[in-house]
Amino acid sequence: MIQIEPDSEIPIYTQLTNQIIEDIARGNIKPGDSLPSVRSFAADLGVNMHTVNKSYHELEKKGIIQIVPKSGAVIAKHEKVDLTTYEKLKGVMRPQIAEAIVSGMKDEEIHQLVNTIISELKDDQTNQ
Amino acid sequence: MIQIEPDSEIPIYTQLTNQIIEDIARGNIKPGDSLPSVRSFAADLGVNMHTVNKSYHELEKKGIIQIVPKSGAVIAKHEKVDLTTYEKLKGVMRPQIAEAIVSGMKDEEIHQLVNTIISELKDDQTNQ
Predict the structure, then answer these.
(1) How many CB atoms lie within 10 A of CB A108?
(2) CA A4 to CA A41: how far, in whole Å?
(3) Nearest CB to B121 within list A24, A89, A97
(4) pTM of the entire structure?
(5) Do A63 and B99 touch, CB atoms closer than 8 A?
(6) What whole-number distance in Å separates Cα of residue A37 and Cα of residue A73?
(7) CB contact under 8 A, B116 and A90
(8) How far is A122 from chain B (nearest CA, A)?
(9) What is the pLDDT along chain B (128 residues), one digit of tens a residue?
(10) A97 — phi, psi (to 5°)?
């Protein structure tokens, strides 16, 4: 499911992080599921183990996975967003919303864009 | 108005780009206005000229400024978002919306967050 574009401006570990997050949002990977081991994931994707490791650490920092001895990288469950994550998301979304405004989007169009993204992410969800 | 955090994880040129975009969204800088020359802006901010130059090129690539001979970096006017920008914004916002969902935010909470950001950006707008 993961598609890495080696020629993208976006670093490979960020592509991997983003795609794992999107797969969880889509419901393809669920809380309690384990991600593959660093070694096997790197082999499957044809990327460096260091890249997968960096991505897992980023996901752990974001609170999206927990590194559990023996089980590996386990998807965490979040019923409610915590304040730190909320503030971080606000910080990263602000420049992009500002860019949308500057590029000529009306408030309503920005909300429609958000709806489009949410719909696309939830398109293939079966039980959420 | 621009505040650079040298110790941030975010590269300085990106901080500069984001803050210029936010200042335009806020209406502090208006279409037709010119940004300072690279040399004087770099001196004011206490950063390398190369950093300001990189930020201006990024803004130009985003269609937010036009580099005009003699006038320098002029803020472009956008009445309506173009499709390329829309698709780019969709691409950069998707991982963040996915992260919001994964972190436990409901659709309605994501829209409220977007509203909060828009309100904060437009807080000190006087004539828009």
Answers:
(1) 8
(2) 12
(3) A97
(4) 0.87
(5) no
(6) 8
(7) yes
(8) 10
(9) 789 999 998 999 999 999 999 999 999 999 999 999 999 999 999 999 999 999 999 999 999 999 998 889 999 999 999 999 999 999 999 999 999 999 999 999 999 999 999 999 987 654 44
(10) -70, -40
Q: Looking at the partner chain, which of A80, A89, A102 has a beta carbon nearest the beta carbon of B100? A: A89
Query: Whose structure tokens read 């090129």?
Result: B57
Instruction: For residue B47, give both structure tokens.
Output: 């950063």
| Inter-chain CB proximity A121 and B98 less than 8 Å | yes
- Chain A residues touching residue B121 (CB < 8 angstroms): 94, 97-98, 101
A73: left (phi over 0), alpha (psi -120 to 50) or beta: beta
> Encoding tokens for residue B10?
């975010």
CB atoms B96 and A94 under 8 Å: no
> What's the rounded mean pLDDT across residues A71-86?
94
User: Concatenated DSSP letters for A44-107?
Assistant: HHT--HHHHHHHHHHHHHTTSEEEETTTEEEE---SS--HHHHHHHHHHHHHHHHHHHHTT--H
